[in-house]
Amino acid sequence: MTTTPLLWQPSSERIEHASITAFTRRIRAEFGVALPDYHALWRWSIEHREAFWRAVWDFTGIIGERGERTVIDPERMPGARWFPDATLNFAENLLARSAAGDTADALIFRGEDKVERRLSHAELMASVSRVAAALDAAGIATGDRIAAYIPNLPEAIVAMLGSASRGAIWSSCSPDFGVQGVLDRFTQIAPRVLFTVDGYWYNGKALPILDKVGEIVARLPSVEHVVVIPYLQQSAGASDDLASVRAAQSWDAFLAPHSARPIEYVRLPFDHPLYVLYSSGTTGVPKCIVHGAGGTLLQHLKEHVLHGDLKRGDRLFYFTTCGWMMWNWLASGLGAGATLLLYDGSPFIDRGRVLWDFAEAERITHFGTSAKYIDAAKKIAVVPSKDYDLPHLRTLYSTGSPLTPESFDYVYQCIKADLCLSSISGGTDIVSCFVLGNPTLPVWRGELQCRGLGLAVSTCSTPTASRFPRAAKCAANSSALRHFHRCRPVSGTIRTVRSTALLTSSDFPMSGATAITSS
């Protein structure tokens, strides 16, 4: 019989000051339940779904009107509707927690070793205000789609929040996508505005993309405005640079007529669409996956505040592109009061040191990446614990693929010994996680820490199981999904949905993540 090694145990002080500890105490006091450990809290969260999600709303300080009713038809899947009387605005919840004149960092950006920028909370709010005004002037209305073909720049966060403040629906692709890959996605949603760049940097090389943008826009007749961010040239785009792109103007020109002012957030129903993400496209054209504002916000704040112990003033980094759901997850860190650390480009600049330079210089507290990056760093013998001082780093996230036991060893031997290694697992279909970390639980070699609160996750390891024909597949039973992660029998393609107007139709109510089945 083998024993799985214990790699990390949280200190009593860390447990005492964790937000999930405070949340557990509140539940004990309010509902008179014992909850001796995390498993008991998890069990309570799925057996008392309505009480749990109301408690998460209150504990995380959601801005908006919750309403009296918590859920309609909770046993229906699909069909359950959560917080049917609630109204909120996603952007308001990410921005309005900071004072208007807050000069602390909100966004810190590095583009390889080429570009460094930072925006304060005040500068972020001012920029979002100008984007919102520009979208209003362009005639963008609630429910219109805004697309982005863009790197992980501050302008991506700004444009997304500006769109969300108006009730528009955001969808993004990374600029390394080919023309057809972008068209396979964006033609389904008929965007009216496209945010993009003149190019991007990768492994020290400038990669212009305006030729690709021109071809994409020529084949996207719904696009009325193309806004080009001058990432490569770092100045306003000259008119001849954009001449090959229909309806194009520079970022500066788009914003020039509009000065910063207080943002008038449009508060909308809890299940109003926020994001359109896409399936991988391995079985045909990628399928649209629509995520509602309220469910996305509530789920992300649960994960950031309770499972990640992300607090005001913390500094959250995730190595991601705008084509991966972890970008959407990262953006929500603003709602917990965190500073977001954004990086674009190769993670192996300067012999794999670039991300750790960033972590040390900017005092990153939560470092997120893929299991593949950790494995690659191990293979090229990157040893941050020897080369860097990382006293602020207390959580490391890994996702995208399974983290091997040997990579667990690498993290504790070569990155930091006192670290909550959170190997998390979720998906684009819920834009969040089924299995998560927990700062109050130990880390065992090769093992994920815990099931997410409010999600009745179970596993099946029998290869012949009728519902799960492949071994060791992680699944969630219906009660896990009855709150606001509900599968809907509609593919999301124009052919099946019939019209992009259905994205906001009352006959197609959405809340949280909406998993789409193929047609």
Radius of gyration: 22 Å
Strand content: 15-25%
Distance between the termini: 47 Å
Instruction: State the secondary-structure class.
Output: alpha/beta
Q: Could you list the spans in which at least 5 consecutive residues all have pLDDT below 50?
A: 235-239, 464-519
- Distinct helical segment count: 19
Given the C-alpha coordinates, what overall shape results?
globular
Q: Look at the structure and give the mean pLDDT.
A: 88
User: Biggest sheet: strands side by side, in what order?
Assistant: 7-6-19-18-20-21-22
Give a quick account of the main beta sheet: strands, pairing sense, barrel closure. 7 strands, mixed
Number of beta strands: 29
Approximately how much helix is present in the residues? 25-40%
Offer a few descriptive terms.
519 residues, 7-stranded mixed beta sheet, 5-stranded parallel beta sheet, 22% strand, disordered C terminus
